[in-house]
User: Which sequence fits this backbone?
């Protein structure tokens, strides 16, 4: 399968993008800034690169310029994926550097996969603009940075003005009586209730809490685990999961439950045997994730008694950073 280099200084962004691409079978290599990305690319020469723009050490624009100057890398499709530089002028500049695609964050996983498939299927550089010369590049880079600074200055000035208005308003006499506030508040609640009841997707006011989540002893489940009959879910934050987790477990941290749930569990039925675990300090995360799964309709959900610490102490399989 093709190899893809992804570059972002935000570890959570890297993890989500890596997960999306690995689900398609791509080999994924990561870097945290442009300088590291160039060093990695020159060692392994990927089939495609996806990079953020706003990064320390070397940003995405400079990375693209250096990328297109390298004879070994210039023909490799270059995709910008950014949440900071979203102005059409930013996109025009990015494409003028020779990039094939410019995407703004966030995008649905299927959209990302589609763009990657299209970029890999055509000849690299086929649809890309011819890179500008050095003077044009530097001039464009200066204009992009100046525009971004102007935007930030404008945002700061707007915030300062709003704070001043709030401060001034605090000294003005209130034009609404207490009864007016009560009436407005009551009407707001009534409208919200009416909308919620009439909406098929409305949120229940008093959702049924899940039953107490049962625990399972590692020895009692290890045989089914080895037979592939149990889905293990690691409820730890992604940075802990990346360092060490049970072999074969998928990561669904509570903070990203809705996103990770749809990515990792879409192929499983509601009767799938699931065991949720975490380290000894994250018991509440385990219970919360297990509870959410039970509310989602999964009928066989348990938490791992003793968590990762007990599993490791018993000598059962782990995946750890740097292990083979």
Assistant:
């Amino acid at each position: 399968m093709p190899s893809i280099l992804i570059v972002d200084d935000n570890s959570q962004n890297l993890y989500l993008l890596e997960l999306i691409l690995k689900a398609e079978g791509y080999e994924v290599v990561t870097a945290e800034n442009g300088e590291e990305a160039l060093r990695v690319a020159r060692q392994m020469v990927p089939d495609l690169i996806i990079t953020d723009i706003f990064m320390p050490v070397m940003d995405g624009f400079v990375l693209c310029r250096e990328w297109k100057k390298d004879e070994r890398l210039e023909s490799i499709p270059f995709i910008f994926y950014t949440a900071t530089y979203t102005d059409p002028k930013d996109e025009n500049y990015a494409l003028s550097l020779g990039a094939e695609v410019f995407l703004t964050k966030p995008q649905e996983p299927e959209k990302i996969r589609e763009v990657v498939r299209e970029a890999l299927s055509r000849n690299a550089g086929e649809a890309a603009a011819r890179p500008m010369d050095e003077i044009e590049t530097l001039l464009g880079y200066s204009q992009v940075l100046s525009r971004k600074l102007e935007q930030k200055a404008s945002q700061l000035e707007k915030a300062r003005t709003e704070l001043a208005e709030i401060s001034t308003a605090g000294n003005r006499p209130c034009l609404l009586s207490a009864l007016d506030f009560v009436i407005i508040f009551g009407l707001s609640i009534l409208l919200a209730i009416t909308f919620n009841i009439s909406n098929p997707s409305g949120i229940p006011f008093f959702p049924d809490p899940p039953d107490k989540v049962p625990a399972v002893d590692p020895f009692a489940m290890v045989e089914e685990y080895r037979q592939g009959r149990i889905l293990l879910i690691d409820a730890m934050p992604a940075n802990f999961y990346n360092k060490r987790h049970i072999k074969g477990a998928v990561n669904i941290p509570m903070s990203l439950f809705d996103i990770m749930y749809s990515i990792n569990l879409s192929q499983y039925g509601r009767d799938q045997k699931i065991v949720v675990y975490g380290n000894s300090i994250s018991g509440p995360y385990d219970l919360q994730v297990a509870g959410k799964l039970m509310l989602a309709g999964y009928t066989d959900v348990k938490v791992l008694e003793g968590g990762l610490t007990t599993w490791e102490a018993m000598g059962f399989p782990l995946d750890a950073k740097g292990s083979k």
